[in-house]
Amino acid sequence: MAASRASHGYFKRRLCQALYRRGSFDFESVAEYQQFIEQVIAKLNAKCQKKFALELPHITTFAQISHP
Known about the structure:
The structure is a single chain. This protein is mainly α. Helices cover 85% and strands 0% of the residues. Helix 1 crosses helix 2. The model has no long low-confidence stretch (mean pLDDT 83).
């Protein structure tokens, strides 16, 4: 449970930083705000995806060794 709270806090901080960089917390519509959030999420996921891709071969190898 604590891990999910930590990741939520991380996302909230990144979203707040993105809003500050944008220069405004105001949006023309809910759809525009939703699109902004989706862009922030995509950027965060891209960073994680790169790290995951680097670790994946090692994770797979470990799983095969641990559970033949």
